[in-house]
Automatic annotation (TrEMBL):
Entry keyword set: Acetylation, Fatty acid metabolism, Isomerase, Lipid metabolism, Peroxisome
UniProt KW Transferase keyword: no
MF annotations from Gene Ontology: isomerase activity
Associated pathway: Lipid metabolism; fatty acid beta-oxidation
Protein name: Crotonase/enoyl-CoA hydratase family protein
Length: 270
């Protein structure tokens, strides 16, 4: 397993555990974070033994968002030419967006396990995950508004489809903190656990359940759900018909049907 400076990555029972590993900095997202997460999710996509992914944060907090030292470094590169400054900022923003696009575009389901702070850029990250779960001490905030800027790495684009437009506007305009119970009520998280230990136990149990399913079926399901964010129902029906014309020929279908008929637990190849 590759060693990373901002992450710890482990593969156990077909589940990749991707842990932000800067607890002494409240798991702030430094320069290494943004490049390493692309490499990690490229490895996840290329490794058939990985069937589900859990993202968590080491220590008391999930993440405090982008590292302010990184922003200060970027400010130090700015000159007097407005056009060149704009070019630098735009390319930087697009590069950071690409880091979370790698999470969103991963063909394996990605589950976020959130405790403590989930602020600013951390909201962008969990918005790119398939599902979100939190401990009772979790605190969520779209903090960019308090920094004098609009969130620009995915929150404003992905979160309306998760929690709805109206509540997102309130949170994005005010930057107020959302506690765990409200996060559950508005659909930001699927489930709330009592503490961090229960959170990881619960999320890994869900990940194991997903990992036991046909990887062909899981990948196809995620592909269809992602496709439907930007297409009409008739487009989606046409797409799944074409997709399953190939995928229904998978050996997994025979294995699943045989297991169901014999009331056995099916075992699928990677």
């Amino acid at each position: 397993m590759t060693e990373y400076t901002a992450f710890k990555v482990e593969l156990t029972d077909n589940i990749a555990h991707v842990q932000i590993n800067r607890p002494e900095k409240i798991n702030a997202m430094n320069a290494a974070f943004w490049s390493e997460i692309i490499d990690i999710f490229r490895w996840i996509d290329d490794t058939d033994a990985v069937r589900a992914v859990v993202i968590s944060g080491a220590g008391k907090h999930f993440s405090s968002g982008i590292d302010l030292m990184m922003l200060a470094s970027l400010a130090g590169q700015m000159g007097k030419d407005v056009g060149r400054n704009a070019r630098l900022l735009r390319s930087t923003i697009l590069r950071l967006q690409g880091s979370f696009n790698a999470v969103d575009n991963c063909r394996k389901p990605v589950l976020a396990a959130i405790q403590g702070y989930c602020i600013g850029g951390a909201i962008d990250l969990v918005s790119a995950c398939d599902m979100r779960y939190c401990a009772r001490d979790a605190q969520f905030s779209i903090k960019e508004i308090d920094m004098g800027m609009a969130a620009d790495v995915g929150t404003l684009q992905r979160l309306p489809r998760i929690i709805g437009d109206g509540i997102l506007r309130e949170l994005a305009y005010t930057g107020r903190t959302v506690q765990a119970e409200e996060a559950l009520r508005i659909g930001l998280v699927n489930r709330v656990y009592d503490d961090s230990a229960a959170l990881l136990d619960g999320v890994f149990a869900i990940a194991r359940e997903i990992a036991a399913k046909s990887p062909v079926a899981v990948a196809g399901t995620k592909q269809m759900l992602s496709y439907m964010r930007d297409h009409r129902i008739d487009d989606g029906l046409e797409y799944i018909a074409t997709w399953n014309a190939a995928m229904l020929q998978s050996e997994d279908l025979r294995v699943a049907v045989a297991a169901h008929m014999s009331k056995q637990q099916p075992t699928f190849a990677d």
